[in-house]
Amino acid sequence: MSSTPHDPFYSSPFGPFYRRHTPYMVQPEYRIYEMNKRLQSRTEDSDNLWWDAFATEFFEDDATLTLSFCLEDGPKRYTIGRTLIPRYFSTVFEGGVTDLYYILKHSKESYHNSSITVDCDQCAMVTQHGKPMFTKVCTEGRLILEFTFDDLMRIKTWHFTIRQYRELVPRSILAMHAQDPQVLDQLSKNITRMGLTNFTLNYLRLCVILEPMQELMSRHKTYNLSPRDCLKTCLFQKWQRMVAPPAEPTRQPTTKRRKRKNSTSSTSNSSAGNTTNSAGSKKKSAATNLSLSSQVPGLGAIPNCSLNPGRDGGDLCHSTAVTPAGQFKEKH
């Protein structure tokens, strides 16, 4: 029977028994302590709903869990998403584990704008096995956690790199079977691989297939489609994303600035309006109009060519000029 925090002989891995204070932010290590307490409150009747509630309490909706270790056939690295995390913890207990908790020693915390990172180089995952024999397994490694910097303080990324493990068998059990070579030979064999049970390892291998299928499962659950229709829809949408041209970046509309009128044109217009009574003024205004047409294109002689034949059988071309009074006058 596993000890609980209410047991007077219970030794917490984080020192004395803590009480959580309301509304203010707690330490990230205390969240691991709370997770240990929640795992200890698990019963044999805990179903999938209990494990979903456990993952919702301690993991973000887009959280990822990564395990790195080295087996006989080489290094392994498994990463699972939020929907597969509850099943991962349940497989630990299905492999014969009766108790699970994590011990963090000399961890370092770093605060960012929206997250808190905890780096513990001396982390131990302790599992108590009741079958096939009573054994305590200490799995040591480096644990890197990223918490969201808010009131919930849930885990966003979990990365546990396993370095070594130890399987501890009580001396009392060895003394009981000291005269039985077969039992001693069975006790000398490891019951885990790098501290993980065969149930957990098989589930991690299965997650390599299940993780890419999350989109199919989500579509089947949302739209109630058959597996074949879900696969067709996902493949079609993926093909559309591959064929579709990349979206052009939106350009901000440029604001047009109104140009200020040329001071030369305003001066020439005012001088042309004030000198319409004298002949000398008319010559001056004509000269002014010529300078205006040369400075501002479009206000001088505008050639207009018509395709209709003239009297001599050629094309009839005429031009339009601007008079000093602002009126248009055609010149053939």
UniProtKB/TrEMBL annotation:
Residues 245-307, 313-332 are annotated as: Disordered. Residues 263-280 have a biased composition (Low complexity). Residues 286-296 have a biased composition (Polar residues). InterPro entries: LIM-bd/SEUSS. It comes from the Eukaryota. This is LIM domain-binding protein 2 isoform X6.
